[in-house]
Design a protein that fits this description.
Layout lengths: L1 H42 L17 H24 L5 E2 L1 E2 H17 L16 H25 L5 H26 L4 H34 L1
Antiparallel strand pairs: 1-2
Helix pairs in contact: 1-2, 1-6, 2-3, 2-6, 3-4, 4-5, 4-6, 5-6
Length: 222
């Protein structure tokens, strides 16, 4: 009877400890991704838009695409932590579903890079790879925004809800403004800065959310 009780109480504890490790490592990968993206931008300050850093022929492409892959890894690790959590992370559908789809999009964007100059799809000079890369990258960030909205509605950790709402609004506003500037061929420097800001905020949110999941599981274990 004693052994059975120990096994039944030990299993949730092991799950929580495993979730702590996954969420912590995922958080670190997200912050590392943001750092590498800004590092590559410091190497090529003339580049205005994020995806241009990973374009074919760019000296920054290997490191930038590694950063995108790290972001995909971070997203999937946090997803696995959420799946392994003893707490429900579900708003409409499992948050883990949103996270893993988001991670797959970033992984595809890291492998299928845009062509030199990263032209807008269906414009002169654009190649099929540009459509694949930009579509997957944009879809990934849209899914990140959806994940933020889901977390913002969870009835726990008020500060995380507030942070998710603030990041959601900031990422949405900066992304939309940057896209409009790019679409109407306005100030490319401003549009590029807004795009980098939106990307950094979204990536940082994954890092913070990972730390929060780890903290919740650690608290439940103690």
């Amino acid at each position: 009877m004693t052994q059975t009780t120990e096994r039944s109480t030990g299993t949730p504890r092991v799950r929580r400890e495993h979730a702590v490790v996954l969420a912590t490592v995922g958080s670190g990968a997200a912050f590392a991704s943001a750092a590498l993206i800004w590092l590559t931008r410091s190497w090529e300050p003339s580049v205005h838009y994020v995806s241009q850093l990973g374009a074919t022929g760019m000296s920054t492409a290997p490191v930038f695409n590694l950063a995108l892959l790290l972001l995909a890894v971070a997203t999937v690790l946090v997803d696995r932590a959420v799946v392994g959590s003893t707490r429900p992370y579900r708003v409409g559908w499992p948050i883990a579903t949103t996270l893993v789809a988001c991670g797959l999009c970033f992984a595809l964007a890291s492998v299928v890079t845009c062509s030199p100059g990263c032209p807008v799809p269906f414009t002169p000079g654009a190649l099929p790879q540009d459509l694949v890369h930009i579509t997957s990258a944009v879809t990934g960030f849209v899914l990140a925004i959806i994940a933020m909205a889901q977390v913002a509605t969870l009835r726990r950790r008020p500060w995380m809800r507030a942070a998710s709402i603030a990041t959601l609004v900031a990422v949405g506003a900066t992304s939309f403004t940057g896209a409009m500037i790019s679409l109407f061929r306005g100030d490319t420097v401003l549009g590029g800065n807004l795009e980098f800001t939106a990307a950094t905020l979204a990536i940082a949110w994954f890092g913070v959310f990972g730390l929060q999941v780890a903290a919740d599981e650690r608290a439940a274990t103690s």
